[in-house]
Amino acid sequence: MSIPQQIEAILFAAARPLSIKRLAELSAVYVDDAEKALVELEARLVDSGIMLQRAGNEVQLVTRPEHAEAVKQVLKDEIHGELSRPSLEALTILAYRGPLTRPELEQIRGVQSSMILRNLMLRGLIEEKEDVRLGQPLYNVSFDFLRHLGLSSVEELPKFEELRGHQNVTDVLKDLEQDSQDDRDSQDSNVSDQITV
Amino acid sequence: MSIPQQIEAILFAAARPLSIKRLAELSAVYVDDAEKALVELEARLVDSGIMLQRAGNEVQLVTRPEHAEAVKQVLKDEIHGELSRPSLEALTILAYRGPLTRPELEQIRGVQSSMILRNLMLRGLIEEKEDVRLGQPLYNVSFDFLRHLGLSSVEELPKFEELRGHQNVTDVLKDLEQDSQDDRDSQDSNVSDQITV
Amino acid sequence: MPVTFRIEKFEGPLDLLLQLIESEKLDITEISLTGVAEQYVSHVHENKGKIPPEELADFLVVAAKLVYMKSRLLLPSLEDEELDEGPDLATQLREYQRFMQAATELNHTWNAGHIAYARDNRPARKLVPTFAPPPNVDVPMLCTVMERVIARLAPIVKLPQVAMKRIVRIQDKIAELANRLRTMAKFTFASFVSKAKDKQERLVSFLALLELVKQRVVTADQSENFEDIDIAANDLDRLADLKIEFV
User: Fold this and answer.
1) What pTM value is reported for the model?
2) Positions of chain A with pLDDT under 70
3) Distances (CA, A) of A6 to A37, A44, A60, B11, C243
4) Which residues of A touch B129 (CB under 8 A)?
5) For residue C147, which residues of chain A lie inside 8 Å, CB to CB?
């Protein structure tokens, strides 16, 4: 296996500066060899849109400055402009039924939602609450978002009581409780193949 | 400015899948040129520790699977346990034949599949596409699924052409059948009869 | 009497059928399928408690197809347009088999841990959220979206009820057949089937017949001169006590 490639992969995935010593450990080579691999990597990256940045003993991969405009734009994409349909759904569910944990939200949406929660947090539309439920953080719509809608509280949302307490929602959340109960039970009785989904 | 480099920088910074259309917009080029640039980028990355991954109209940059052991250590552990038999079945069929509607998947599996689709959506291993077929949502395997297998696209699956090609033949036959039939509903009822009776 | 293979674990009707065929080292043909029909039915019968209710109907559909195929061997004139339509069971099973072979390889790759990682995007969490209100969202829209989400949950929530309905229909049908057998010592299967209103009922009739034959309550014979299969209840007392619990 090529060490420059491996180091590139590590730096790419880490998305933060790492010390050369740490890189050497992760690649199971001496620091000198890691240093040599970095020089090699640097040379290869001349033709690429990214480059190696050094600061003291630490290195990281960053985009080349000539692409700054396009890069800025793609990062702005994430927090500006219209909400995607999945994001809108998650936001709505939190507005009507919040606070919810991520598994609860996913149970109602029926879709894995970690990226969406992250994005809604970045945009300041939802907040992580101080307390937790079953070891999971709870999320709620933010006060800023409510104010943006011209509401002073979620209870002013149309059909709030009806939609918040809807049987379908209560039922799927019950399933989730049941599932986690089953998981615990089957872990106890060691029936592991029953629980792998 | 080199378009392949710029596209590489954008994908690097985004750290998520982007549509080829959006890449073209961000680079201020036509979609065709973006597509060409992606092919060029793909070729250059052969010598590197990262690769381009494709699913549908979207692409993203990921580390090469041979570096998984080292890379894993700088990331928060992903929890993807073993696949149960039904999950494996549905994922395999969707990987080779996707996108498919639920009735189409059920036709191949011979069993009701709404719960398995829901579970796979909750685990983020499949995605519901934006478009529909015969009024039914279409499902495809996700980037997360491809990443876990270390594939750059489903086309790298063993015997991909053979298992997929069959479907094309079936589709053509179906279309012919459809054309020769005035009764437009027959195909719908064919599919649903297989499932619901 | 053929050797009866015990299949310990199966996922879905095609999986059970495939395992039965493979355990007898048979190719997938119409003949081999009818050969394992009885084993298939007894496996379903014995495992009915373990099969998820929402899947049971699909197991019964395959049973019905097998019985139909078998009946056709005895009685070629017996035709059912609806049971004939769509891909035949052998074709469906061959395709299923190819996917299962691919699944085995895929599972191997899955467990190998050769994962391709995307860039860690957690560092973005450290960014202070900037309030960026979406231009396309207003209060009525939230209400519409929430109603859509709730509506989408309905099939999931109702799944057990729908499954139970299908099962109850089949139970009723089997009970009805038992009743008719009690009053009629002899009648032809085909005439019974011809009275069925729709495909659903015909499938159920086949199943019911098969179940009763299996329990040796009735015998199914084809007389030389008649095209129909005669069905006779040969033990009416037993039939009266018959606890019909196919499902």
Assistant:
1) 0.81
2) 180-197
3) 9, 13, 14, 19, 68
4) none
5) 159, 163
